[in-house]
Structure formats: structure tokens, C-alpha cells
Amino acid sequence: xxxxxxxxxxxxxxxxxxxxxxxxxxxxxxxxxxxxxxxxxxxxxxxxxxxxxxxxxxxxxxxxxxxxxxx
Length: 71
Hints:
- By secondary structure, the chain is an alpha+beta fold.
- The chain has three helices and two strands.
- The chain has a two-stranded parallel ribbon with strand order 1-2.
């Protein structure tokens, strides 16, 4: 997989309306992960309260890889 970015997943509605498709997609994603097929370049890890600062970094071109925000 090239030039693909996994930004976030919100599957609530899919699990209600397209369960077989959602299960298959999740299985493929976890399989890629297990095989080491997902290897994003993460250069910044921070918390949600600092999201505005990290957004400024993105807008200002001060990042070279992914910015990951967690609770």
C-alpha cells in the first residue's frame, strides 16, 4: 500500500448497516498490522489538549511525518 493515510476510524454506523463488509475490512487491516505492513512515519506524539499547537506545526510545515494525538 502506497500513498495511503489512515487518519481515523469511526465505524459505528458501518457496524450497524454493513457488518460483513466491516468485519472483512477490519480483518484486512489487522492482518496488515500483524505482518508489519503498516509502518507509518510518526514524528510527533502528543495529547489532545495540545492539538491546536500541533495543528500550527502542521500548517507551518514543521513536521515531516505523522502527528499522533491521544487522550
